UniProtKB/TrEMBL annotation:
InterPro entries: NMN_transpt_PnuC (IPR006419). Its main location: membrane. The chain crosses the membrane at residues 29-47, 73-94, 126-144, 156-179, 185-207. Keywords: Membrane, Transmembrane, Transmembrane helix. This is Nicotinamide mononucleotide transporter family protein. It is a multi-pass membrane protein. The keyword Transmembrane helix applies. It is found in: Membrane.
Length: 263
């Protein structure tokens, strides 16, 4: 009898912990902190004061001069980049909460990010972002059809292999097509690996694998290392937030799965 009481008590305690984990992971306060953090970093770096004008990037353009530049064909690349960063964060948070709206928003933010990345000089974006765009569409469809969180299987490891193979192919193809000369072999591999991790993360999201946010944790760690080396403290802070968010989401998906927990 005593053993049964202990088992019931332990079960109740686990359920309470599960509810607490879900409440923290889905907290609107995390959404709020994330938006303020990303917005503050963009403003601190003066991203919003960047204009694409006459084939080049102009920094430090006051907002009061935007209408003048736009009337002459200027493109408010910084302002759209800032807005896109905030919306991308909210989309990521919606995906954490298993809401398909996050994937749907991701389709449009991918287009926005691709255009901005290309204008900032990453011409390889023209061959990498269409793939990310297609995966976002796939994720939206599969979630709409009722995709459920599942453990890794043979297909998962095949997707990982294909993801990294595709990453290396596209990155090196981009270097070749656009004449990018980089003598640092380590840098070339790091670009391909980071892109590969992001591809695996996006594919895992589409198929709702438990390890989805473990993959995104690796991605955020890689970005942390990269930005720490570059001395970009603002981005270091941003990716610390993303890393904590991914860790919470990983445990929530793994422990609570698709279960609708009553508050």
């Amino acid at each position: 009898m005593k053993e049964n009481v202990i088992k019931v008590s332990n079960q109740v305690l686990r359920e309470q912990n599960n509810v607490l984990l879900r409440k923290i992971t889905h907290s609107k306060y995390i959404d709020f902190v994330g938006v303020i953090l990303v917005l503050s970093i963009c403003i601190y770096n003066n991203f919003h004061e960047t204009i694409y004008y006459q084939g080049g990037i102009q920094f430090g353009v006051p907002l009061r001069d935007f209408s003048n530049y736009i009337s002459k064909g200027g493109f408010p690349i910084g302002l759209l980049s800032t807005i896109g960063a905030v919306i991308s964060l909210l989309a990521a948070r919606l995906i954490v909460k298993q809401r398909n709206l996050g994937n749907l928003i991701g389709i449009f933010t991918t287009v926005n990010s691709g255009v901005i990345d290309y204008l900032f000089g990453n011409h390889s974006a023209i061959i990498t972002y269409p793939l990310t765009f297609a995966i976002a569409i796939l994720a939206t469809k599969k979630w709409h059809d009722g995709e459920r969180i599942k453990k890794i299987d043979g297909k998962y490891w095949l997707l990982v292999f294909v993801g990294f193979l595709t990453s290396y192919t596209l990155v090196y193809l981009g270097f070749y097509l656009f004449g990018t000369t980089i003598d640092n072999v380590i840098f070339k591999h790091s670009v391909a690996i980071i892109f590969g991790i992001s591809l695996v993360g996006n594919i895992s999201t589409a198929f709702k694998y438990e390890q989805t946010f473990l993959t995104w944790s690796f991605y955020n760690v890689a970005q942390l290392i990269k930005n720490t080396i570059q001395g970009n403290i603002a981005n270091v802070v941003k990716y610390i937030f993303y890393l904590l968010n991914a860790i919470l989401a990983f445990f929530d998906w793994k422990i609570n799965g698709d279960v609708k927990i009553k508050n």
